[in-house]
Write a structure and sequence with these properties.
Layout: H1 7-10, H2 23-34, E1 41-45, H3 52-64, E2 79-83, H4 90-100, E3 110-115, H5 122-133, E4 139-145, H6 153-156, E5 160-163, H7 169-182, E6 186-187, H8 189-199, H9 203-217, E7 220-221, H10 223-230, H11 235-246, H12 250-261, H13 268-292, H14 314-332
Parallel strand pairs: 1-4, 1-5, 2-3, 3-4, 6-7
Helix pairs in contact: 2-3, 4-5, 7-8, 8-9, 8-10, 9-10, 11-13, 12-14, 13-14
Amino acid sequence: MEHFVVSARKYRPQTFKDVVGQSAITNTLQKSIEHNHLAQALLFTGPRGVGKTTCARILAKMINSDGTETEDEDFAFNIFELDAASNNSVDDIRSLTDQVRIPPQVGKYKVYIIDEVHMLSQAAFNAFLKTLEEPPKHCIFILATTEKHKIIPTILSRCQIFDFKRITVKDAKEYLKYIAGEQGITAEDDALHIIAQKADGAMRDALSIFDRVVSFSGKNLTRQAVTENLNVLDYETYFDSTNLILQNKIPELLIQFNTILSPAGSLRRRLKKSVWSSIKNLELSGLWISKHKCWWPGSKFAWNLNICPIFSKKASMQILSEKCLNNASTRSGIPK
């Protein structure tokens, strides 16, 4: 068996233009370097898998770049990565402080990337304060964390903070489409859309799911294969559930819930939330369709929403859906 490199590592962005969904931050960092306006302490914060460490590495390379280096130059002698989860004591910070005093042997700057910085102990944070506030002119700190609220205010006030946002479904889907093309995989748009939704804003998670589904289905990625492998419900299931709720057909609804839960027990907790989310999306679509006086294009959910009074009464719809779902939960043993 040959060595396999997961897509999250194989396609890790090497320049700011390759970073997905963080254009505001990447543009700011690029212009900061161009105008010599880069702070000496930066804090990258945001959810997992959105590009914090990747942007930190790209920035660290750009800081020492002068245009004369080769393409594969990684400035390994100038970039130091520290995992704060396993180096969170005062002694570790003291060792870092001693290293900071030594100027770089090659290039202008030494860049320290401290990942998961919120894992530092209280004493380690206090020991780091002075160095972070007045570092040597040849030193730049880039801190990364998923939990900014755990960092003490005195550290936050000494950093320039960049809040990374979740990757949108549209951006994740487009990037997955690019990856599929690079690997010679034929993928349906619906299949990629479901993967992007399942990733919940994390590009790394989307690529991990993509690798898993490709291992299952091969070179042809279909919606059916994705829903089967990820154990998620298809769109038609939501349309059927919504129709049954609106028609107040509680017995048929319970039968459908039982059919869904029998082979897939892991859907139990997500079922109520998923159906309500589907109703919310349909309501928002109905408001737009009602305004423009057109028909809903769904295959089984095809009635004129312009004359449907339920979609014009949000409270009535919420009461109806909650009542039906709560009744279904009570009778079928689904936890509320």
